[in-house]
Amino acid sequence: MGPGFGGGFGYSPRGVRTGPIIINNSPRYGGGGPGGPPDHQNRNTGRAAGTVILVAWLIIIAAALLLLLPYLRGGGSGGVQRSTHQREPLPASAVTETDYYTDADGSWFSNRAQLESGMRQFYRDTGVQPYLYVLPNGATTSGSRLTEMAEELYSQLFTDEGHFLLVFCDDGSGSFHCGYAVGSQAKTVMDSEAIAILSDYLDRYYSDYSISEEEIFSNTFAKTGERIMTVTKSPLPVVAVCLAVIVVALVVFVTLKKRREQQERARRQTEEILKTPLEKFGDQEIEDLASKYEQDP
């Protein structure tokens, strides 16, 4: 009796990632006190209103982009592989429950309950019992060797085909390597996509120095079990809504901008007319102007 299949994966430190660049925008306002000419006040008011509208729409677009960004980068999954199909948990008869881990290094874990809580949650969600085998730090960096060890250990540790065995080795320099073996029944749940999801979560939590070693693996297994037993929602509806918000925002902004430009042109024309002495107009032009203003409300 042996595992259905095995494999391996590892982690290498990434480069330093910088945070978002934040640009603070402040509306500009013009001078001119209460005694300033009315046309200056109108211009300043129009500019201030235009700036406020521009900033408001920029905020809306930025918010839509922030909602859209996770879906563009990680399929709406926070950088974790999506689960694309429904899996059925193994029946209870498929597994003879065993211990949950071996710490061959001897110094990784001190809180058994904390480590096993997430692993037991994974077992309840999937019907597959996980088992973690931690080698002494720096024992090997060979993925193929770790896979061979996982396959050898599977038949030594279990008498069923419903376990998932993860052999983990930290190199002591901020990286790790893993090998794994999956029972022939367990592989209906722990397929290649599920392995990728577990790898992504282990990568995430291993890089989080704010949590304990127990939490690294407890969180990894708990989150993996939760994700692989549901289908990750498609990002397309959210993407469509975000794009629609951006398009509408741009259309409204352009429309308002054109309307303000038309109003400004009309204001300038009226201002020029009012500044022009009546002597420069002919009798017919004066009558036309008088008729126009009589018709205006």
In short:
The protein has 297 residues and is an alpha/beta fold. It is 51% helix and 11% strand.
Question: What radius of gyration results from the CA coordinates?
Answer: 34 Å
Q: Main sheet, how many strands, which sense, barrel?
A: 5 strands, mixed
The spatial strand order of the largest sheet comes to 1-5-4-3-2
| Helical proportion, percent range | 40-55%
Uncertain regions spanning at least 5 consecutive residues: 12-38
The coarse overall form would be: elongated
Annotation, overall tally of beta strands: 5
H/E order of the elements? EHEHEHEEHHHH
What is the CA–CA distance across the termini? Answer: 95 Å
**What fraction of the residues are assigned to beta strands by DSSP?**
5-15%
Helix run count: 7
Structural class: alpha/beta
Mean pLDDT: 78
Structure description:
The protein has 297 residues and is an alpha/beta fold. The chain is built from seven helices and five strands, in the order βαβαβαββαααα. It has helices at 38-74, 112-126, 143-157, 192-206, 213-228, 236-275, 283-295; strands spanning 3-11, 101-103, 129-134, 163-170, 176-183. Strands 1-5-4-3-2 form a five-stranded mixed beta sheet. Helix 1 (38-74) packs antiparallel against helix 6 (236-275), helix 2 packs parallel to helix 5 and helix 4 packs antiparallel against helix 5. The longest helix has 40 residues, at 236-275. It starts with a strand and ends with a helix. The model is unreliable at 12-38 (pLDDT under 50).
